Amino acid sequence: MEGKTERLAYLLGAIYGDGSFSKDKKIFFGVTDKDFIDEVVAIVYKLFKVRLTTRIQKLSLKNPNWKDYFNFSSRELYRHLNKYNPRLGKELPKFIKNGSLQVKASFIKGFFDAEGNVNVHPIKRKDGRTDIIRHVKCYSNNIKLLKEIKQFLSELEIKSEIFRGKKENYYVCIWNYKGLTIFNEFIGFVIKRKQSKLEQALNSYKEIQNQWDVKTYKTVMKLRKTQKIGAKKIKQKLSSNDLNIPQSTIEAWIYGRYKVTETKMEV
Predict the structure, then answer these.
(1) Element (H or E) spanning 183, and its range?
(2) What is the pLDDT of residues 133-190, one digit of tens each?
């Protein structure tokens, strides 16, 4: 977030996720990650010279799974943001919709800090090998907003899909190596625990790809070069020959950068 416009886009992304707008023209914002609210408070001061007071609510003194809750409210911040968008919380301002890729990425960063999570967990395959499920998701009841975020992601060359969650809840999901890599490089998270989980997800590709030999890697790359096909079709072709390679591993190979030797692959 280099300039004023990027900071403003991030701020709105964060507030559209974890904030609310009252009828009496006040903004409420509350989170469980101190590094997140500290970043938001700092941006508000940089943009508008508004000093916000953060309140801390202790949810439990005994249960470590009950995190402290940090929040603030402000009418002054509402007045400043209302200048950019008189329909706060209902639609995105034009400076984001028509903005640069960096502005859109900043909005996504704020929204994913608020409503996103990273999921990484191993699964055992029937052939005894281990695959790892890796997802970055963000949730909202506002399907229109998620569709706009999906479009922004597409402009950044990040493939994603929207799925139905529980009840009226929906989520955008990013799951492939290329998308996660671009997300990490151009968007990422301010929240340290989420950024750490994202890096764990990317590092896990290195662990999985080491289960395969160089001959298999070369077979995949030859199909990629000669037939100009993606990971899904490569997997289908190899599966017909009883070579079942996880699609995520193929993606890591064709979109990643690996040095091939006679005995192993190195990142």
Answers:
(1) helix 177-186
(2) 899 999 999 999 999 999 999 999 999 999 998 777 899 999 888 899 999 999 999 9
Q: What is the pLDDT of residue 148?
A: 96
Q: Which residue has the tokens 């896990």?
A: 204
164, burial (CB in 10 Å: exposed 0-12, middle 13-18, buried 19+): exposed
| Token pair of 195 as six digits | 């950024």
19 token code pair: 């904030």
**Shared domain check, 180 and 135:** yes
- The DSSP result for 98-121, as a single string, is TS-HHHHHHHHHHHHHHHEEEEEE
Q: Is residue 8 part of a domain?
A: yes
The domain that contains 71 carries what CATH number?
A: 3.10.28.10
58 lies in which domain range? 4-91
Q: Rounded to whole angstroms, how far apart are CA atoms 58 and 61? A: 7
pTM to 2 decimal places = 0.79
